[in-house]
Design goal:
5 helices; three-stranded antiparallel sheet; mainly alpha; about 70% helix
Length: about 190
């Protein structure tokens, strides 16, 4: 009888731990979904405003000769590379679906781990940026770009591009840090 009481307590304890972990994961996943939806919404709102407020008006100076807004229909890839190449852009759109699936997979793999919180957030930003630009490709057959750093004549970009760029820079810095400190990186966990 004594063994069965201990066994029941152990089983109950394991069940409670799993239940808490499951609730924690569901909460994290819901928060991730909300953040991704918010990022996509903000990207699409800024593009809507660009279409309705900038199209046909040329450049609108924001910070003198440093930064301006101008409407651009990007039929190419990032920063207008491969402009007007419909076959290439079809391949890019298909690959974007695959990449979005990988981001979801990576997020799920990291969901249980507390130490990769920043990396999970970076993945959400990558997802939001890729999804925002994919929505444009599907709806318009081009991506709406409108932010232009005039002082350095940088290619015109959008909010989704900012999400992706910031996330990639963070991930690269984090991977370099993990390599220098010989720590486990989130890439080790995902792959």
């Amino acid at each position: 009888p004594k063994c069965s009481v201990v066994k029941k307590l152990c089983l109950r304890n394991n069940f409670e731990k799993r239940s808490k972990m499951k609730k924690k994961m569901i909460g994290r996943a819901a928060l991730a979904g909300f953040l991704a939806a918010w990022l996509i919404f903000m990207d699409q709102i800024t593009k809507y405003l660009a279409i309705h407020q900038l199209k046909g008006y040329g450049e609108v100076s924001v910070l003198g000769d440093v930064l301006c807004f101008r409407y651009l229909e990007n039929t190419g890839a990032a920063f207008s590379l491969f402009d007007n190449s419909s076959v290439f852009m079809t391949v890019v759109s298909i690959l974007t679906f695959v990449v979005l699936g990988f981001f979801v997979y990576a997020y799920i793999k990291l969901l249980k781990m507390d130490k990769f919180k920043a990396e999970r957030i970076a993945i959400i930003f990558l997802f939001g940026g890729a999804a925002g630009n994919l929505i444009d490709r599907v709806m318009y057959q081009f991506v709406v770009d409108f932010i232009y750093v005039k002082i350095i004549d940088f290619p015109t970009f959008n909010v989704a591009d900012c999400y992706i760029t910031c996330a990639v820079i963070f991930i690269i810095i984090r991977l370099i840090y993990c390599m220098i400190k010989k720590k486990e990186s989130f890439i080790d966990v995902i792959l």
